[in-house]
Design brief:
The protein is 21% helix and 31% strand. It is α+β, with helices and mostly antiparallel strands and 518 residues long.
C-alpha cells in the first residue's frame, strides 16, 4: 500500500472516530427554535428569552448540570472576578474554541474582519450565569454553546441569523448506536490538484442558503482558489481565514445521487506565495447529511465544480429526522428516466430513504454497511456491460452473505438468482435445481431472499425454490399512479388485503415489506 493510500486511511479513521463521539453530530435528535417563552414534550423545563439572554427554568425533580464548555466559561468568569478584586492576573487555562476540520461545523460564523485586511479579530464568546432553578446564557451572533446536560442528553444553545434555538444531543441516539463508518469513494490521486489562493481585501460578504429551508445566513469569502484540471481552469470562492485555515464548500454533478446536496473540504493554511493543495479525496459531508436538525451553510452561489467529484465521502445511508432513524435502501435501476422521476418521490413519502444508482454509470464500489436492503430492477439486460453485470452479482452476493434483504425485479432478478446459486455452491450445497422458474406471460418476476416475508405485505408467493429464494409476480398492464393519495389510504388497502391495482401501490407494499423486516 503506497503512502498516499496509507495517509488517506489514517485520515478516514480519524474522521470516523470523531463522528462517533458521544455528543457528536450523530447524537443530534432535535432542534427547537425559541420564542419569548418556549417548551415542548420531553423538554426539561421552560425556556425564556429576554434582552438576548436565554434562561431555562427546570421542571421540579429535573437534575441538570453545566456542560463542560459552560463550566469552563463559569470558571473564567470567576477568575476574571478574582483578578478584578486582587489585581493579580491568573494564567490562562483555556484557548479559543476551534472546530476540528474532520467534523465541520454547521455554522458559517467566521472571524470578524477589521478595517485592516491583515488583522482578523477573535470571535466573541458566550456569557453564562447560574440561576436558582436553572441556567442563563447569552450568545454572540452566529455562536453556539454546549449548555447543560440532563442524564444522557446535552442541550446546545445556538444563534443562526439572529434566531435562537436549542439543539438536543443524546449520547444514546439510535443513529450513534447504528454508526460504523461513512461510505467513501476509493482514494484517487487524479482528484488532487495544486492550486493558488488569491485573497480578497477586504473579504466579500454573501447571502447563502442553509440546510434549513427557512433560514439564510451571511458568510464571507476570503478569496478565490484557482486550479488547473483536464476540463480547464476552475475558480471557486473559499471561506474561512487564511491565517487559521480555509474551507471550500462546493456542488458537483454527483450531488443528490451518490453524494449529498453539497460537501465541504478543508484546505488548510495557504503558503506565503498562495499555493495550496486541493485534495477532493478528503471532501466530507456536512452534518445535514446525517441529521435533519443541522443548519449547515450551502456553498456560495456559483461554487460548482464542473466535473463529477467521485472522491471523498459518499452520501451516508443513515439519517435522523422527526420520524426517527431512516430506513436506508440501495436501488440499482435502469428504467426510463421519466418513470424514475415519477416514482422517486414515492419512496420518501412511504418512509424509505432510497439511494438510486445506475449500474452501468455509477461504477464506484458501494459499501452495504448501514443499508437495510438492496434492490436491482431493469427490463433489458442488453444495455449492461460486462463490468456492470459482474458488479450486480457481487452486490447481490454481499447482501445474501450479510443476510441483508435483497430483491431482484424484472430481468435483473437473474443477478439475485445467479448470486444465490454461486454462493450455495461455494458453501457445498447441491440444491438439485435443473431449470429456473419463468414468469407467466405479461407478468413481472420478482425474486427475493428469505429474509423477507412477502405475504405480510399482501404479495402472493408463486414459487419457492430449493435454495430458499422466494418468487412473486405482478401484471405489467396496471396504471403507474394510484387513485389513493394519502399514506393512510395505502395502509388501509394493505390491511384489507385489497388487490394491487397500480405501480404506486406496488411500491408502497415493497416499502412496507422492507420496513416490516426492520
Amino acid at each position: 500500500m503506497n503512502q498516499f493510500v496509507t495517509e488517506w486511511n489514517t485520515w478516514r479513521d480519524s474522521r470516523n472516530s470523531a463522528l462517533a463521539k458521544p455528543f457528536g453530530w450523530l447524537s443530534v435528535v432535535g432542534l427547537h427554535w425559541l420564542d419569548q417563552e418556549s417548551t415542548w414534550p420531553e423538554a426539561p423545563g421552560t425556556f425564556t428569552v429576554e434582552d438576548g439572554w436565554v434562561t431555562i427554568a427546570l421542571e421540579p425533580g429535573i437534575k441538570a448540570g453545566p456542560a463542560a464548555e459552560t463550566f469552563d466559561l463559569m470558571s473564567e468568569s470567576q477568575t476574571d472576578a478574582t483578578t478584578a478584586s486582587t489585581g493579580v492576573t491568573a494564567p490562562s487555562t483555556s484557548a479559543a474554541r476551534a472546530t476540528s476540520p474532520s467534523v465541520p461545523s454547521d455554522t458559517s460564523t467566521l472571524p470578524t474582519v477589521s478595517d485592516r485586511a491583515d488583522q482578523e479579530t477573535a470571535p466573541a464568546r458566550p456569557q453564562v450565569r447560574v440561576e436558582d432553578n436553572g441556567f442563563s446564557a447569552r450568545l454572540p451572533e452566529g455562536g453556539s454553546l454546549s449548555w447543560f446536560t440532563v442524564g444522557s442528553v446535552l442541550y446546545e444553545l445556538i444563534d443562526r441569523g439572529g434566531r435562537l434555538g436549542v439543539r438536543v444531543r443524546d449520547s444514546k441516539s439510535p443513529l450513534l448506536g447504528k454508526f460504523f463508518e461513512v461510505p467513501a469513494f476509493d482514494p484517487d490521486p487524479d482528484f488532487v490538484f495544486l492550486g493558488r489562493f488569491t485573497r480578497f481585501d477586504p473579504f466579500k460578504t454573501f447571502t447563502i442558503e442553509t440546510a434549513q429551508e427557512d433560514l439564510q445566513l451571511q458568510t464571507q469569502a476570503a478569496g478565490i482558489v484557482t486550479f488547473e484540471t483536464k476540463q480547464g481552469e476552475v475558480s471557486l470562492l473559499a471561506t474561512g481565514c487564511p491565517k487559521t485555515g480555509l474551507q471550500l464548500d462546493f456542488h458537483d454533478s454527483t450531488n443528490g445521487k451518490t453524494t449529498p446536496a453539497w460537501r465541504t473540504l478543508d484546505l488548510g493554511v495557504p503558503n506565503q506565495d498562495g499555493s495550496l493543495v486541493i485534495d477532493f479525496n478528503r471532501a466530507v459531508n456536512y452534518p445535514f447529511a446525517f441529521t435533519a436538525f443541522a443548519t449547515c451553510p450551502a456553498p456560495i452561489e456559483g461554487n460548482v465544480v464542473p466535473f463529477e467529484v467521485t472522491a471523498g465521502e459518499r452520501r451516508p445511508p443513515f439519517f435522523y429526522s422527526e420520524a426517527g432513524i431512516n430506513v436506508p435502501f440501495l436501488f440499482y435501476v435502469w428504467w426510463d428516466e421519466d418513470s424514475a422521476e415519477v416514482t422517486r418521490p414515492w419512496y420518501s413519502s412511504f418512509g424509505l430513504d432510497i439511494t438510486i444508482l445506475n449500474p452501468d454509470h455509477d461504477d464506484g464500489r458501494v459499501s452495504l454497511v448501514g443499508f437495510d436492503g438492496i434492490a436491482m430492477s431493469g427490463g433489458d439486460l442488453s444495455v449492461l456491460g460486462r463490468k456492470a453485470r459482474s458488479r450486480l452479482i457481487d452486490i447481490a452476493t454481499e447482501a445474501l452473505t450479510s443476510r441483508i434483504p435483497v430483491i431482484g425485479l424484472g430481468a435483473y432478478s437473474e443477478f439475485v438468482i445467479q448470486a444465490q446459486r454461486e454462493l450455495r455452491h461455494q458453501q457445498g450445497y447441491d440444491d438439485g435445481i435443473e431449470s429456473e422458474y419463468e414468469a407467466s406471460e405479461g407478468r413481472l418476476l420478482i425474486v427475493m431472499n428469505n429474509e423477507l416475508d412477502p405475504q405480510q405485505a399482501g404479495f402472493d408467493i408463486v414459487h419457492t425454490d430449493a435454495s430458499g429464494l422466494i418468487y412473486v409476480e405482478m401484471p405489467f398492464d396496471i396504471p403507474l399512479e394510484s387513485d389513493l393519495t394519502e399514506v393512510e389510504e395505502f395502509q388501509a388497502a394493505l390491511e384489507a388485503d385489497r388487490p394491487i391495482t397500480s405501480w404506486q401501490e406496488f411500491d408502497y407494499r415493497m416499502v412496507a415489506l422492507i420496513r416490516g423486516h426492520r
